[in-house]
Amino acid sequence: MIVSEAFAGKSRIERHRIVNDVVRDELRDGVHALAIKALAPGEPV
Fold it and tell me: Is residue 44 a part of any domain in this protein?
């Protein structure tokens, strides 16, 4: 789970793109799956 102000006002897809951009190298180098739960502060878990 990732909680960040950067996700405020963003759609689920936009949030996933932000996370994927950060972990792109790890995904390319062997990680084949990633579960993402990206929330803005104050959003219910």
Answer: no
DSSP string, 19-43: HHHHHHHHHHTT-------EE-TT-
Cα separation, 13 vs 20, in Å, equals 10
Cβ(26)–Cβ(6) below 8 Å: no
pTM given for the model: 0.84
pLDDT tens readout for residues 5-45: 999 999 999 999 999 999 998 888 888 888 999 999 999 99
CATH classification of the domain holding 17: 3.30.300.90
